[in-house]
Every structure is written in C-alpha cells, then in structure tokens.
Amino acid sequence: MIRVCGDNMYPPFEYYDSEGNAVGFNIDLIKAIDRNTDTFGGGYEIELLPWQNIEEAIVNEKKDVIEGISITKQREKNLVFSNSIFEVSHNIYVLSENREIYTYRDLKDKVILAQNNDPICGLRAEDTLIKDTFFKLKLVKDLEEGFETLARGVGDAILSPEPTAEYFQEKMGDRISVRPVTRLYWTDYAIGVKKDNIELIEKINNGLDIVSKIGEIERLKTKWFGDRYNPKEPAKSEINTACIVEIDSEGNVLACSDGDNLLGECENIFSLNNEGMTNCIRSAFLSSKPNSYIYNVHNDGFIREYCCDIFPCSRDGKEIAVIVARNLTEEKRQSFYWLNRKKVRFIEDFVGRVFDIINAPFTTIKAFVDLLPENMDKEEFMNEFLKYVPDAIEKIGDLGKVMIPLSESNEREKNELLRSVNLAVSEIENDEIRRVEFITEIDEDMYVLFNKKCFHNVLTELFRNCVESNCSTVTISAKTSENKVRLSVRDDGCGINAEGMDHLFEPFYSTKAKHYGLGLSGIFMTVQRNMGEIHVRQDVDSGTCIEMILEGGI
To answer: How far apart are CA 175 and CA 151, in angstroms?
Structure first.
C-alpha cells in the first residue's frame, strides 16, 4: 500500500471540502495514474496533513509520496522529484484598493504574508531576490489564514500561487479583492518521494508520461484551474478528447479504443475511414516522430477545428498511437477572453493611478477656491494662491498632453518616413535649449503604415527621451525587408540601468522628477495598436538603441 500525503489547505491543488473529502488537482492526478497504470500496484491511501509536517513525514518514512510540491534546491536534499507536471507562478498580491504598492520596488520594507515552509523561506539565504531581505516576512499557518489576515488589514501583501489566490478571492467574495504586484518566481511542480526511493519515482514518471499522452493532465488542469491557470505561455484550453489506436507493422490502423472514456461526443474526430488521419498515423509510426492533423468537426450546426497530435508508442508488446485532440476553436475563444480580461484589469489599475495623480492638484485648487471669497484682499493669501494654483493646473494639463496619444485613432495611412522623421527632429530642436546632433540615414522613398498623428507623437517622444539622456548624437536609420521597415533610433547618452530596463514600458514607472511614466508605455501601446513591434537594448559601447518594426516598404 502506497501512502500518499499532501497539504490539507492548498486549494485548488488539494484540500478537504466541506464534507471532509480530499479533493483537488493533485488528488485527481493520483487517481488518474492509478486508473490508467500499475504505478501503485498494491493500492494507495491519501491523507492531507498540515503543510509543515509533510516533508518530515516522507523523511521519517511515515509516508511514501508527496502528491504535489514545488522543486527547490533545499528540498532536493531530502527528496527526489518526478518529471515536472507544469510550472507554477508564485505572485505577490495586494488588496485592490491599495494605492501605495504597484511595483516590486514599492514592496521595500513592507510586510509580506507567506505560508510557513513556503519555498520563499528557503530562498532567503540563497543568491536570489530575497537574499537582502528586501521586504519583511510574516509567516502564517496556511494560505487561508493568510488571505483572512490580509482581508483584516494585517500585512501589506501576500505570496501565493496564482490559482490559489484566484480561488480564495472567489471563495471570500466581497470580503477581499486582490491584484498581483509582481511575479516573484516560477517553480517546477512535481510529485516527490524520499531521495533513495528511485524505483518508486521511476514508476511515477512512467505513470505521468502515460496520463499526459492521453490528455488527462491537461483535462485536470482545465477542470481545477480553468482560465486561472496562467503559465508563461498564453492560457491553454482543455485537451478535449483522446484515444488509442492499434497499428500493424506497416503502420496501418487496426482498431480504435476508448478505454478511458474520453471521447464523449467527439468520437467522429477519430474516424478510421478518414484517409488524412490514417495517413498521418502511418507517417508518425514509420518515422517514430509525433505528427499532427487538422480536422474540422461538424456538430449541432457548428464547425469546430481540432488539431490531432499523434504520438507513436507501444503497450504490452503492441504498436499503438495515442491521439490527443485539441479544440482550436475553443482555444482561440479562451485566448481572446483571457486577453480582454487582462485589458480590463489594466484599465482598472490605470484609472486608479490617474486618479491618484490628479487628486492632489485638484484638492489644492479646490481648497484655494473655497477660501478665495474671504481672502481676496489679503496679500499673503493671494501670493500663495498665485504660487500653488497655476502649478496645480499645469500638472493636470501636462498629464492630459501625455495621455492624448493613448486615445488617438488606429486608422493607418502611408507616412513618408524621412519627412516624418525630419518634422519630429525640427520640433525637438525648436523646443530644446541643449543642442544635439541628429544624424539621419533613411532612404527618401521609404514609407510606413501608421496613424499619422500617432506616428508624429511617437517620434517626438522617442527623440525627447534621447535628448534627456544627456547624449550628444542621435542616429536614426532604417532598413526594409519583406514589407517591413526596421527603424532604429540610437543615442550615445547615459543608457538605462538594469531596473529601468525591467520596467521600461511599465505605466507610471519613472526615474525622472515630475514625470508620470506614461511616455514609453504610451509609445509601446501605440506601436502595438498600429500592428508594429518595439524593442529596446543597451548599445555595445554606450547609450541606448530603440528599434521599431513597422509595416511598410519602399
């Protein structure tokens, strides 16, 4: 009997529900391995323990398997891990109404709630972000206690895996609303056993390989994490169905089985009468390499596009192919939903920051205006009025000017590149007292497709940033290739430090006094809206090179 343990309060990975049943992604994964393989030949039992007792239970051989755990160097001293199931994002969250913490640098000297024995506790002594104890840790028994503590206003932020944070936000309803500040680190998530138990971990790896190939892991991720599951790549939809086909020595399909009852109403995807499908299966078998086949399924008046990934392998001495079908139509829908969800979150944060910026000058103006009728004849008051009110009005006006490019139309048109650059350069030269030499290396026949007003704003903002870097020369060059124009703006100024590079296009981040940090972030969004790309790198010798890839040509 294999004794399996896990965390008793780590939803949606594993936890006890209201009826005392052990549920979650990890629980279902152990069941799937047992159902589809002989990994736990003599059976298994699952018990969820307080997190701080789990590793000790494995080391003292009271338990055999940890059903889900992040891989860290510290844990590798006592444990051996399976192949990674997926990567887990560990983020720092604050209450949504928090108006002090927006970036990692805002966390300095703040109190971060973390579950006892979380990987971050072990990382503090290693060569990582945490080595200098940038912030203070307050340990809690489990993440449920952590989120309850944060909701009461104790502590400034909390460290949590992304799915767990979303779970507690939904569970606690109106009592808490959180937003991520920074993704602190990624860890590989795996199954763990005692370090010397190599035989068991090899069996577990074999079991994971099988349930992965039949699509069971992806199905469980969608079941428990839904669109909350946010790996480094865009959100992936469920692998909807899978099957196993038996093949003869020449790669011909003999039979199609559905031993795992995964086909559901999509079984017509795997029709053995489909010549394209059978040819792909044969090709995968003969080449011993995975193959893919795109197939359209007509059902209930809808057409759904599937990508069938074919994996050649063997089982019980027979040649088989595992076919996993992904619903591409659903993937596109979920990706669109996820993108819009991120936009909504950005807008909420953006509006909040704008309000914070204009609130102070508005408060100043209102206070003086309220007192004006009673103090118009007082020289001291009027001097203060003329000192502070115009400055407050100017701040609001400056913010408006910075935000104008963000609201421009996306309608693109032909822009003569050399002419556009020369107009922007002349405007900068007229505005700036300090003289900078602009060198232009652009073919006069080149053009780009971009909203004309937006393009002018982008160029002037870029050139102004160059001038403010204390450079003496700005070189503007362009090359064309395959209906694209690669426009480079290179200066020989002071460059950008490492922290600045990390936050370069982040709204409201600025190292300059009286700047709002919306210039480069506005450029980034404007270029994207006009179907372009923008990249920034430190130059080889000194200065900065900003490169835009835009649609256009000669």
So the answer is: 7
In a 10 Å sphere around its CB, with 0-12 CB exposed, 13-18 middle and 19+ buried, how is residue 513 labelled?
exposed
Per DSSP, 267 falls in state: G
Give 471's Cβ-side CA count (13 Å radius): 26
The string of pLDDT tens digits covering residues 151-188 is 999 999 999 988 899 889 888 988 888 888 776 667 78
Q: What CA–CA distance (Å, rounded) separates 307 from 320?
A: 19
- Cβ contact 271:253 at 8 Å: no
Measured in residues, the chain has a length of 554
Determine the distance from the C-alpha atom of residue 347 to the mean position of all C-alpha atoms in its chain, rounded to a whole number.
17
Q: For 281, phi and psi rounded to 5 degrees?
A: -65, -45
The helix/strand/coil state of 79 is strand
Distance between first and last Cα of the chain: 73
Burial 371-390 (b: 16+ CB within 10 A, else e): eeeeeeeeeeeeeebeeebe
> Average pLDDT of 216-222?
89
Nearest partner of 214 among 243, 237, 235, 192, judged by Cα: 243
Percent of the chain whose pLDDT exceeds 70: 74
Token pair for 190: 């795996």
Give the dihedral sign, CA 363/364/365/371. positive
Contact between 327 and 297 (Cβ < 8 Å) = no
Is the Cβ–Cβ distance between 175 and 60 less than 8 Å?
A: no
* Neighbour count for residue 271 (Cβ, 10 Å): 12
Please report how many Cα atoms fall inside a 13 Å half-sphere around the Cα of residue 321, on the Cβ side.
36
**Class of residue 492 by CB neighbours under 10 A (exposed 0-12, middle 13-18, buried 19+):** buried
- Report d(CA 310, CA 295) in Å as an integer: 13
Q: Which two tokens stand for residue 121?
A: 């506790």
**Residue at token pair 């799937």:** 32
394's CB contacts (< 8 A; 6+ apart) are none
DSSP secondary structure letter of residue 477: E
Are the C-beta atoms of 256 and 270 separated by less than 8 Å?
A: yes
Stated pTM of the model: 0.44
For 3, which DSSP code? Answer: E
pLDDT mean over 55-59: 91
Element (H, E) at 298: strand 291-299
Cα radius of gyration (the chain): 30
Can you list the alpha helix ranges (DSSP code H) found in 404-497? 417-431, 452-468
Nearest to 554 by CA among 483, 455, 476: 483
**Encoded tokens for 160:** 């949590």
Half-sphere exposure of 324 (CA within 13 A, CB side): 19
CB atoms within 10 A of CB 411: 11
Query: Hey, is 93 helix, strand or coil?
Result: strand
Q: Characterize 516-527 residue by residue with b for buried, 16 or more Cβ atoms within 10 angstroms of its Cβ, and e for exposed.
A: bbbbbbbbbbbb
The residue assigned the tokens 């408060």 is 363
